[in-house]
Amino acid sequence: MPWPTVRHRPKSRDDEVLRSYPYRSACPSTAWADLIDNATRELYFGGYTSYFLWTQVPALPETLRRKADSGCRIRFLLGDPDGAVTRQREEIEDVALAVSTRIRTTLEQLARIEDVDGVEARFSAPADAINHVSLSVFRFDDEALVTPHLARLAGHDSPLIHLRRHGDGGVFSRFVEHGEELWSRGVPMTGAPHARAHNSGQSEPP
In the list 32, 124, 161, 195, which could disulfide-bond 132, CB 3.0-4.6 Å? Predict the structure, then answer.
């Protein structure tokens, strides 16, 4: 009987983890602003609501407009504010600022730059919503901030990991591939208030 084939697995790349925070809210707002400002090719915001960006990063709509005008691709993958997973998450979190309200805040902010080419937005597909709400991936060229959402906790109370890419097959690539998979199945924001969806093809692999 032949020996079973052993699949090769990439070696661990601990050097891709630059820093970790026990809470997303512990990451300085200046870190988010610097990562956005330094990106030149790719900005991917894969938070289910991404609401906190508009309060933590000063003049974010103007910054995104400037980045898009310089050729940077900008994408937002949001949860559907009217989706079943959103309603379920609202019951779980049970906070005054509901998940659907946070999503609609992001949609209103995106409306400020809806005339800018290079800014794309989609809702995650219904079948992917549960995977989206449980893991947020934010990419800034070859760096990323990742938040795995814990149990009943809102995003700001969940941990955050800061990653930097060092080749293929590492932790950075695994998380970015997850984000790209959800994006590839994302759905247009047809009928969503203050939103416009751009339906371009998938981006190049990380």
Answer: 124
Cβ atoms 114, 70 nearer than 8 A? no
Determine whether 175 is exposed, middle or buried from the number of CB atoms within 10 Å of its CB (0-12, 13-18, 19+).
buried
Q: Which residue has the tokens 């019951």?
A: 91
Residues 6+ apart with CB under 8 A from 186: 77, 122, 123, 124, 125, 128
Q: What is the pLDDT of residues 121-175, one digit of tens each?
A: 999 999 999 999 999 999 999 999 999 988 776 767 899 999 999 988 899 999 9
User: How many residues belong to the chain?
Assistant: 206
Of 159, 152, 125, 143, give the one whose Cα is nearest residue 24: 159
Distances (CA, A) of 71 to 58, 183, 198: 21, 20, 16
Q: What is the value of pTM for the model shown? A: 0.85
Burial of 205 by CB count in 10 Å (0-12 exposed, 13-18 middle, 19+ buried)? exposed
CB atoms within 10 A of CB 88: 14
Task: For residue 175, give both structure tokens.
Answer: 């998380």
